[in-house]
């Protein structure tokens, strides 16, 4: 069953630019929303949610917030049977588990790099080949034609 997507605010050039890199996609609000919808359809949205949580976590200034945010990320994504458990290697998971009682702003860096790599090498290319992305580009191109050629 095809996933319906409702991201029509971006213009065709912007939508096409998402294909340049996973960074371009993640940096664009509409691109990120479309990618999340795609990942949700594949039951792997925890990857982008973890990546976003880490990006937010690294901007934390308060030491008390560092601890509470780290615990939240750990309980949501890292610990065994977490509700949004991500697939990371045993060594990385163990290292985080051993250091979570005194978290630093870089405590999730290895796991975030691993998940980013997974998204860049696996999920992102599938997103670009998906019917959802192709439809979105086609709609954007068609919308631009109408704007410039009102007789269509």
Describe the structure.
By secondary structure, the protein is an all-alpha fold. The protein has helices spanning 12-17, 22-27, 29-41, 45-57, 63-78, 90-99, 109-129, 131-148. The longest helix has 21 residues, at 109-129. 26% of the residues are buried.
Task: Describe what is shown at a glance.
The chain is mainly alpha-helical and 152 residues long. 68% of the residues lie in helices and 0% in strands.
Topology:
Blueprint: H1 12-17, H2 22-27, H3 29-41, H4 45-57, H5 63-78, H6 90-99, H7 109-129, H8 131-148
Helix pairs in contact: 3-4, 4-5, 4-7
Descriptive terms for the model:
152 residues, mainly alpha, elongated, disordered C terminus
Distance between the termini: 30 Å
Broad structural category: mainly alpha
- Total number of helical segments? 8
- Tell me the radius of gyration: 18 Å
Strand content: under 5%
Biggest sheet overview? none
């Amino acid at each position: 069953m095809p996933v319906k997507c409702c991201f029509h605010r971006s213009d065709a050039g912007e939508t096409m630019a998402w294909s340049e890199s996973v960074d371009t996609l993640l940096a664009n609000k509409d691109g990120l929303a479309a990618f999340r919808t795609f990942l949700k359809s594949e039951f792997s949205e925890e990857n982008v949610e973890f990546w976003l949580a880490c990006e937010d976590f690294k901007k934390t200034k308060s030491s008390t917030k560092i601890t509470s945010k780290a615990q939240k990320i750990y309980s949501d994504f890292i610990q065994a049977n977490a509700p949004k458990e991500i697939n990371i290697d045993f060594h990385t998971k163990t290292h985080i588990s051993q250091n979570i009682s005194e978290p630093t702003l870089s405590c999730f860096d290895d796991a975030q790099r691993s998940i980013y790599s997974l998204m860049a090498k696996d999920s992102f290319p599938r997103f670009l080949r998906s019917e959802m992305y192709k439809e979105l580009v086609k709609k954007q191109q068609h919308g631009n034609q109408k704007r410039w050629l009102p007789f269509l």
